[in-house]
Amino acid sequence: MRILAVILKRVLQLAALSLLVTLATFFLSSMIPGDFFTAQELNPAVRRETIDQMRHRRGLDQPMPVQYLRWLGRCTRLDFGDSDFFGRPVRGVVLDALAQTLWMAIPALALGLAGGIIFGTIHAIHRNRVAGQVFDLVSAITLSLPTLVLGLGALLLAAQTHWFPLGGMSSAGMQSPSFPTWLLDRLRHLVLPVGCLTLPIFAYVEKIQCAATQDCLDQPFLRAAHARGLKPLRIFFQYLLRPSLNPVVSTSGPLLGSILSGSLVLEVIFGWPGLGQVTYNALFNRDTALLVGCVVGSTILLVAGNLAADLLLIALDPRVRGQGDTA
Amino acid sequence: MVDTAIEFLETAHMSFSRRCRTLQALLLLTCTAGILAAQARKQEPTQYLVLQALSGVRGGHLVASINADPATFNRLFASGMANALVADQLAADLVHINRSTHELEPSLATRWEVAGDGRTYTVRLRRGVRFSDGSPFTAADVAFTLDALADPRTESTLADQLRVDGKFPAVSLIDTHTVTITLPRPVGTGLRAFDSIPILPRNKLLRSYQEGRLAAAWGPATPPGEIVGLGPFRLKEYQRGVRVVFERNPFYWKQDKAGQALPYLDSLTLLVIQDRNAEALRFEAGELDLLGSMSPEHFARLRRSAQARNITLRDLGPGLRMDFLWFNLNPGRDTAGIPYVDAEKRAIFERALFRQAVSAALDRNGIVRSVYLGLATPQYGPVSSGNRIWGRTDARPATPALKEAHALLSRAGLKGTAGDGILQFGAARRPFEFVLLTARGDAARERTAEIIRQNLRQAGLQVSIQLLLPNELISRILKTFEYEAILFGPTPTDIVPDLQADLWYSSGASHFWYPNQSKPSTAWEAEVDALTTRLVQTLDPAVRLQACAQLQDIWSKQLPAIPTVAPSILSGWKNNVGNVRPSILVPYLLWNTAELTKRAP
Fold first, then answer.
1. Distance (Å) from the C-alpha of residue A24 to the closest C-alpha of chain B?
2. Is there a contact between B591 and B583 (Cβ–Cβ < 8 Å)?
């Protein structure tokens, strides 16, 4: 019952959030002058009548509320309009881009969480030693580095050392490669963008895990477990690690948001054709339908992340399950 | 038993009928194949376009880049440099501008004659040419393409390129390989506007056109085999945001002097790289075989190691793009009845003496040195000096003439200061200051604007800089007219000044400083209008050149838009890429992909 309630809550949240963000995106973008065709207006070889006709056919000459309601009407048929920039239906572009972003996001999230939890726990255990201070310094530096600087630094490293490809998803010269060759090539291209995306997540999770572990270390149940003579490994996993994971798990859903904002910059720098790059194109080319599609895609990803985090929390913590049962 | 026998007989009968049908189908297939083969044998030999000065080695794979994904593979709908470059690999035009010599050359047309009326062109088409799927090319394809283009439902911006005074040329078929094209009036550039107009396969696209979905027919999701053209390559693969891969079109209709069919390359890959820095780094790392244009910073850095990297770097000199500084001379008012520009200030802007003073105060050499690391050229006329046929190359002192500027400003009515060095104007003796708008995100323009601010401060003018997103800036220029001064510049796509007629004409929407005038507001604009008409309507090259020179003389004196500098086009390619013929016209290095060769490194 508890799980069903959580899912229902998140689905309702998704619907409300999507409506809100699409409304906000439509109206905010209407406040910026110009549209997708404005850039063509400077071309003296193109007549104004042609551009106006194109605008009219796409309904861009209508007031923004009318455009929004029309768009909403099409959405009920799962038609999110057409992208002028890509010349394709928005749904296809966004789904395709979302899949490419997941290539980066899932390894980054997994590596960031795993690394952050491991190092955060070690950091908390060694908090009063030199190692603890080194961890403090490293995570402070990593957290303060903007994604743009990280990305450009990584690109420069690749250019100087030739260890990694300078962006893109695959090597230019590859013609019909075998699956292992293709996979190896894809993984090589993933190293730098995933690395840059992982670092801030790692530093953030490490800080939270460290604080949570420190809290647990001071708890009476841990001393009681020691007093009962339980094996150290059992004490570590059951009485220290498991309860300390709650804050990390509950923040891992919203972490997807920071991954998406990080990928916006990194995908442009590394030429990775994911949702970030598509959003960037939509924004700078004033492709409103595409921009709204990207925002909806990001919202779905964010809510799905939160839902997964909620379910994981329920599975991990009997107290959360208990709250549900009594409710 | 009987049932079994009947069942056996039925099975035998069905099996026999099936065999008969199979035999019939095979027979039909054989006949069709025979007829097709006979037709193919009957087809006249290809009338190749032989490039006499060309030689090269067949084979190889070339990798270059584009900065955006293609939205279509139909050249008719391709807007933007990247999309045009992609679509140009798949299509061919009747006549083509040689980007190296700037001459109009035969392409699918072998020759053309103009009638005495100066507007009817008889165009002879190349015989024996086939589309990339092997189907024949005839005059019907030309008529289909031009009819589709003329149809307003098609909504192709290329159609406007062909329109003369708003009217589309009339096309009629003479025979299978001859058409006549009648322009609404004589046009100085002749058939030049037909460059890049792709000839589409009627058989393949007629239905899409009739159903009103021609624009969507060859979209990014279309299977590559569906896309058929007369260009040097065929589409092999497209991965959004990653790459476009082309393979050689076996039916291409150009040959080199040895009779070798073009293109030389087996395949061509265009990587989608949006970020210019990443693009330059990938060229530096050897992932790209050539790079049409790079920033002065990358060029300067690569120049030091060009030999070690086995690459050629070439400064092609100033391109056609240049920046102008102009003032808003529009006397109109906004919807609230407020003038676009303060009346007293506009009165100063309107004085040619003021604009000449501003021009004199500009340190163009300083801009060239600081912003472009010396890789740009100061400009004084409306046509870039990089345009060696139509542009003026007369040298002027590029250093600021502050003394001259002060004298001119004084004559323009700007006198006296309140001790802060800022000149005063109007009845209330207000300090003369204005806001200069330019595009946000364009580092070169932002830095140029800052140098202009400093230069004009020395001359006694207070300038504040405001950065706007490009779309907002364009909106202010063309629609709202809410600005005092702007630093910006359009990029012409051809060297002939005719394409900029809308900029010259006082009635033009691109007559930026005061557009859409019902009649010329000044005597010099009336004179420019007349010269522009002479330029665009006369066929005589000498008269056209003279009209353009006079036009530039008037501009240089009146300075409605003050030219600043034209950045150099900085290109590079690996030394194992052959037949590279750089051009100042986009796409700089990739305009002759059919001719490019690649040797083993």
1. 20
2. yes
Is residue B251 a contact partner of residue B134, using CB atoms and an 8 Å limit?
yes
Model pLDDT for residues A210-258, shown as the tens digit of each residue = 999 988 888 888 888 888 888 888 888 888 888 888 888 888 877 877 7
Strand ranges inside A81-161, DSSP E: 82-83, 88-89
pLDDT digits (tens, 9 = 90+) for B463-477: 999 999 888 898 899
User: Residue B134's pLDDT is what?
Assistant: 96
User: What does the pLDDT read at residue B396?
Assistant: 67
CA distances (Å), origin A53, targets A206, B42, B191, B486:
56, 46, 26, 28
**Quick one: which H or E segment has residue B105?**
strand B104-106
Residue A91 in tokens: 């749904």
Radius of gyration of chain B (CA): 29
**CA of B483 vs chain A CAs: smallest distance (Å):** 14
Interface contact A228, partner B, CB < 8 A:
no
Sorted by sequence, the CB contacts under 8 Å of residue B352 that are 6+ apart come out as: B557, B558, B559
| Nearest neighbour of A155 by CB, restricted to B160, B278, B469 | B278
Average pLDDT, chain B: 90
Which residues, in sequence order, are bridge partners of residue B568?
B318
- The token duo for B577 is 């890429």
Give which of B109, B76, B104 is closest to B90, Cα–Cα.
B76
CA B443 to CA A291: how far, in whole Å? 26
CA distance A190 to chain B (A): 14
Size (chain A), residues: 327
**Alpha-carbon distance B396 to B379, whole Å?**
9
Residue B469: phi and psi, rounded to 5, are -65, 145
8 Å CB contact between B343 and B328: no
Interface test with A, best of B471, B481, B535, B574 (most A CBs within 10 A): B471
Taking CB atoms and an 8 Å limit, are B471 and A33 in contact across chains?
A: yes
Q: What is the number of alpha carbons within 13 Å of residue A231 lying toward its C-beta?
A: 3
B259: left (phi over 0), alpha (psi -120 to 50) or beta: left
At A229, give phi and psi (nearest 5°): 75, 25
DSSP character string of B266-333: SEEEEEE---HHHHHHHHHTTS-SEES---HHHHHHHHTTHHHHTEEEEEEEE-S---EEEE-----B
Question: What does the block give as tokens for A303?
Answer: 């809510």
Sorted by sequence, the CB contacts under 8 Å of residue A145 that are 6+ apart come out as: A199, A200
CA distance B88 to B232: 9
pTM: 0.84
Please name the amino acid found at residue B166.
G
B12-54 per-position pLDDT tens digit: 555 555 555 555 655 555 555 555 455 545 568 999 999 999 9
User: Which amino acid is present at B263?
Assistant: P
For residue A125, give the H/E element and its range: helix A90-125
Task: Mark yes or no for CB contact B152/A96 under 8 Å.
Answer: no
**Hey, what are B132's tokens?**
């990339």
Here the ipTM equals 0.76
- Could you give the CA distance from residue B236 to residue B249 in angstroms, rounded to a whole number? 10
* CA B264 remoteness from chain centre: 25
Chain A CB contacts of B472 under 8 Å are: 32-34
DSSP letter, residue B339: B
Specify the pLDDT at position B146: 96
Q: Which residues neighbour A137 within 8 Å (Cβ) at sequence distance 6 or greater?
A: none
DSSP string for residues in B13-48: HHHHHHHHHHHHHHHHHHHHHHHHHHHHHHSPPP--
Shortest CB distance from B221 goes to which of A42, A92, A280?
Answer: A92
**Phi-psi bin for B416: left (phi > 0), alpha (psi -120 to 50), beta?**
left
